[in-house]
Amino acid sequence: MLIRARFMNVLVIGLSLPVCTAGCGGIANQEGNRLFMQRLGRTSVTVFPAAVRRGATMSHDRHAATTIGAALSDASIAEVTVSDERVSIKGPWRMNQAKMLRESAADFAAHVREHPIETDYALLSEYLIGGGGVGGVHCYILDADGTVVWAGLWNSHHEAFTEANLRTPDDCAAMLAKVLRSEFGGTRQGE
User: According to the model, what pLDDT value does residue 187 have?
Assistant: First the structure.
């Protein structure tokens, strides 16, 4: 029993990690991630309206893009352009969020390739909202060629998610802005 309890503590600690960055089943290109991290503080990013998914229904939230963009800009992480362009996510709602993450990243990559950006990177957030509240928050950062360089997934297994007590898209955007400032704020070039 003691061994199992210790194992569960290790498992919970492991699941508390905030993001999947270059890992997450190989979703992010490792060399692209390295270059992105080196360019923080002296790069540009287009932030797209959040994809808000409620089962099979999807809407877009430009206010979320403004909130996230302001966080990146205010922390001098990147020069930000907030887009009005909506990204269509075609993959179905699934219980397996890691699979949704991969499918949504592929849809976002196709969008960036079909609609070239004028910045170095593109960012899309995705909020999974069900009858009981928010089930997950995903975030994707791609380079201008549509290659995933960073991705994050937060749900009830992650401290930032549970502490935020998410109910609305605004809550999701605020949590993500806080996480991105924390994740990237201290890693800018020269710090």
Answer: 55
